[in-house]
Each structure stands twice: as C-alpha cells, then as structure tokens.
Amino acid sequence: MPSHIATLYGFICALIATILLFLFVLPSRKSGSLPPVLQWLRDVLTFKKLYLEVILRAFYIFSTCFSIFWGFFLLFSREEYYSYGVFGGTYTESTFVEGLILLILGPILLRVSYEFAMLLIMAVKNLMEINHKMPTQPASREPEPGDEPNLPPVTPCAVPNPEQEAPPTDELGK
Fold first, then answer.
1. Which pLDDT score, from 0 to 100, does residue 91 have?
2. Which of 74, 101, 113, 140 could lock 95 by a disulfide, CB 3.0 to 4.6 Å apart?
C-alpha cells in the first residue's frame, strides 16, 4: 500500500473515532455512567488528571541514570581516530575528562531543566485545584436598556461655582 493511501486511511479512521468519542464518551451527562475503561478514557481526554507529570518524572530518572552510567563508562574509555593521507595512522585519546564532566554536570543540568518543566506543571495543577474549590458563579447576563447601572453612591464635594463673584485681589494677583 502506498504511503499516501495509508495516510488517507489513518486520517479517515481518526476523524470517525473523534466523532464517535465526542458523541458517546465525552458528553458531561455520560460522566459516571460509562464502563471503567471508557470512564478512564473520558478522564484522559478531558484532562481531569495530568499524566505529563508522571511521564516527565520517568524521563528525568532515566536521563539521570543514563548520564551517570555513560559518564562512568567514559572515564575508562578510549577513542580511536583513523587518519589517511601523508601522515596516516591510528590515534587514540582518553575520554576521561568528558566522562568526568558528564558524570558531574549531567545530573545537575538535567535536574534544573526538569525542575523548570515541573514548575509549569505544578502551577497548572494548583490552578485546576483552586478552580475546583471555587463556588460556581451564576452566568452574568448582559444589561438591558432599562436596567439601572450598579454604581457606588455619589458623595457631594465642594466645587467652586463660576457664577459666584471671585474675591478681590490686588494689582499683583495676590
């Protein structure tokens, strides 16, 4: 099967699955009345639970372990270079320095980068939690032409009246 036909079949199947999910799984009236697998799918598709936090944590652990082991094995490795031409030959070089740098700086840089990503995720989780704790507000309606505006009461203040006669001043304006 040509790849453009496979792409077309994939697009059509995805479109049909999307329509079916929107009709039979995602409506709010279906919450709680679905079988466990479809309820889990509904929670995933409506972002009730954030799975990115778990995925990032797993990638962080894997990346840190990989950095440590890779750096450790680089401490005892040698790199061979082959050269052709007039001064051809084989050259070897130790990778001790690269291994030491990776062993020390790798976990530190990974920790900092993953902490920045986790800060964003935790902020979103806290906002979602605050949103769930807030009481539901009635929908605000548009003001109609006869409605009185809900303004604070006006307090009178001393404004000079221009019709009153100004006090006499001397020649210098004092």
1. 74
2. 74
In order, the DSSP letters of 130-154 are HHHHSPPPPPP-PPPTTPPP--PPP
Separation of alpha carbons 100 and 76, rounded Å? 10
Q: Is the pLDDT assigned to residue 43 strictly greater than 70?
A: yes
Counting other chains too, the contacts that 155-163 makes at CB distance below 8 Å and 24 or more residues apart are none
pLDDT for res 85? 67
pLDDT tens, residue by residue, 26-39: 888 877 888 889 88
Spatial distance between the Cα atoms of 101 and 108, rounded to a whole number of angstroms: 11
**Helix or strand or coil: residue 168?**
coil
Alpha helix locations (H) across the chain? Answer: 3-24, 36-45, 52-75, 96-133
86: its two tokens: 């007039």
Domain parsing of the chain, residue ranges: 8-49, 50-135
pLDDT digits (tens, 9 = 90+) for 110-146: 999 999 999 999 998 898 888 888 877 665 666 666 5
Taking the CA atoms of residue 4, residue 8, residue 10 and residue 14 in that order, the dihedral angle to the nearest 10 degrees is 150
Predicted structure pTM score: 0.59
Beta bridge partners of 37: none
